[in-house]
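S.,

Sequence below, as promised.
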Amino acid sequence: MKYKIKAPKALNATINLPSSKSISNRALIIHAMTGGKIQPCNLSDCDDTEVIINALKNMPEVIDIKAAGTAMRFMTAYLSATEGEHTITGTERMKNRPIGVLVDALRYLGADIEYVEKEGYPPLRIKGHALEGGHLEVVGSISSQYISALLLIGPILKNGLKLKLTGEIASRPYIDLTLWTMCEFGASAKWTDVDTIVVKPQPYQERKYLIENDWSASSYWYEMMALNGNIDSEIRLEGLMDGSKQGDSVVKYIFSLLGVKTEFENIQNPEDRDDKANIHTSAPTTVTLKAHRCLLPRLDYDFTGSPDLAQTFVVCCCLMGIKFKFTGLASLKIKETDRIEALKKELRKVGYVIQDENNNTLIWDGETCEPTYEAIDTYEDHRMAMSFAPVAFKLPYLEINNPEVVSKSYPHFWEDLKKVGFEISEE
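The prediction came back faster than expected:
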């Protein structure tokens, strides 16, 4: 499938963003460990969350998590620490995404895990049973999903978990999000030093839980506001929370440098609103985006804490003519695709030449090339499709191959674009 996309001249709409899949996936694993029946409210309807819902509901002998990296890591830990025998597998790309560090850590805690095909990679055969827990050291620069997977099972380990992270710690905000969600369900889990987390063997408690909407998804609307060029444009995004623990909420600060300002709607008095499913000290509200003139000639930023925003800013800055040096991108090599190489190749199609250094840095010094305007390839990567869609504001039209990949995190993305005036036709 291929979409031909033509952007509107201005934006003025209210968008209900998808629920946070990061929080949804954590809450679902925790909910399973409570043994309760009250499902979290406002669960994400994306592919990555659906595979966890189906796995936990049906618990088949073979669990196929498809392309969901979070599901692979979280379910591997969960299956290891709970009774049952399962094989967990996924797409061909998933079978080439490393998982050895997590498996080694779980084996150290006593898990019974075997590699089915290739050492260090899924699929895995797991014979689950109660684990002792205790002290564990893990390299901090690995994917935060490995670390979060270990933390999530900490409360059900007989001796809890004392996790020391060695070296540089990547994606710390995602680790903090995990700890925050765990504590929301009654766990005792906290940093006791700059590199050490202690989780006590204190069981989770069942409770009603409302999941806020996704700050990662908001980034594409910020990008559209930055690129559409009409100062009268205004986008209102529903369901976001000021003071959110989502690491990607930093998007509002970075885009303020590019001229897109954020206004939070005042939250009504907590005594006046329905709190039946709400347990947060603050509540989801509506965010209004407005664009102002941007005079920034260059942007340097370390994306170690929010790597999922990198594609949005790489594409946006090129199209705005803002030179950049973005560091902290090592995890992009092992995502749904090699995002560093994918960005380099696809930006050439629209006339921009970016360089990489040390497999963790992307640089644009203003170099351009003759654009081919070929259709943008998405590489089975939802963020490639969504980060390039706003480029349509700078071209007569844009073509994107395999646009259906957005279902991984934002299933109604294209429908939302149509609501604000995008013309989208299937080629």
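Residues 268-281 have pLDDT under 50 and may be disordered.

Coffee later?
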